[in-house]
Amino acid sequence: MSEFNLQNLVRANVQKLQPYSSARDEYKANGNEMIFLDANENPFENGVNRYPDPQQRDLKSELAKLKNVNSDQILLGNGSDEVLDLIFRAFCVPQKDNIITLPPTYGMYKVLAEINNIENKEVLLTEEFQLDVKSILNEVTETTKLIFICNPNNPTGNAFDARSIKTLIENFNGIVVIDEAYIDFSSYESWINFLDIYPNIIVTQTLSKAYGMAGVRLGVCYASAEIISVLNKIKPPYNVNELTQQKALQRILKVDEVFNEVESIIIEREKLIEVLQEVNFIDTIFETEANFILVKVDNATKRYNQLLEMGIVIRNRTNQPLCENTLRFTIGTSEENKKLIEVLQEIDN
Ligand SMILES: *Cc1c(COP(=O)(O)O)cnc(C)c1O
Predict the structure, then answer these.
(1) Which residues, other chains included, contact 211 with Cβ-Cβ below 8 Å and sequence gap of 6+?
(2) In a mutational test of the pocket of ligand 1, which residue from 178, 209, 244, 317 has the highest number of ligand atoms less than 8 Å from its CB?
(3) Mean pLDDT over all residues of the chain?
């Protein structure tokens, strides 16, 4: 790698910023019984009358153990969407900087670029849904701050060749953001394991998919302590609420349950792939490392509507680049998948 200098990437206003210091930042219980008259809370206990821990220490310390990182390499947000937005706001100057995204991919990167008024340079994946490394590096300019890689990728489902990702990381002086929302369903190694080797990566994960907690909104960001401290400066003080912290902590303390569910979802996925091969209107079943399957069909909109009429909601991805006539199925329970198969066979004429 040439020279990567994080401070050169941080927006000047963020560098100068004196973060808001909340009551709970200034004083956190240290085990002694204290009387808290510092935050204008209602003193009558109801479980949520106190502000939550702004640094989510208990939750981060369990996550750190689980992922084999340090707590200061973790930032938590109100879903990945907040985490991704913080990354934009820390590093990208509106109307000046740009980012690179790699369609077909997760739609939020583009939307967040638009919201933050940042130019989004798009470089299509190859026909095999892999990274076109040369074209990506060709698009990099002086003001390219971030490259977003969704791995495994949504909606295609595949994971990218690790050597290609490595080449990008090693030849880019900005930050490579690797969105691992589906990593628990994948046989590929997480890039969290490379945080100590590469100072210019950010890995995002979420409790919304494998952990079965889309409703609590918890996004997790892993990066160098230096990057995390920049993001910490600009995050809203109480961005992860008390109920979310409690629920997520309970789930992580019983992570074996998560692993068991993931295992059943993967078994269901493989069963479904077998059966889909027998459906005549499905032309291609794409390789998947996620909890969904992308297929190419004869007429995506027609098949989508037929499934809807039969009470099954899937995602029609036909308007995504390289995804003409594709449909995306999330893996459901065994019963739900059985029903899906019945309906597919029924409309297959
Ligand atoms: C579902 C998904 C997320 C999760 O977003 P949350 O805001 O954490 O629910 C992130 N990235 C990708 C690619 C996804 O598909």
Answers:
(1) 184, 248, 251, 252, 258
(2) 209
(3) 96
343 lies in the same domain as 268: yes
Alpha carbon distance 189, 193 (integer Å): 8
| Ligand 1, atom 15, residue with closest C-alpha | 154
Same domain, 65 and 102: yes
Which residue's CA is the nearest one to ligand 1's atom 3? Answer: 181
- Kindly report the pTM of this predicted structure: 0.97
CB under 6 Å to ligand 1: residues? 79-81, 106, 150, 154, 179, 181, 206, 208-209, 214, 219
DSSP of 301-312, one letter per residue?
HHHHHHHHHTT-
Residues 108 and 29 in one domain: yes
Residue 240 and residue 270 in one domain: no
Res 271: pLDDT: 96
In the chain, what percentage of residues exceed pLDDT 90? 93
| 223, 253, 283 - which closes a domain | 253
Q: Are residues 27 and 146 in the same domain?
A: yes
Asked, for residue 140, whether it belongs to a domain, the answer is: yes
The residue assigned the tokens 């893996």 is: 331
What is the residue range of 327's domain?
A: 256-348
- 1 located within any domain: no
Q: Give kind and range of the element (H or E) at residue 221.
A: strand 219-222
- Count up the domains in the chain and report the number: 2
Q: Whose CA is nearest to atom 2 of ligand 1?
A: 181
User: What's the rounded Cα separation, in Å, for the pair 121 and 291?
Assistant: 28
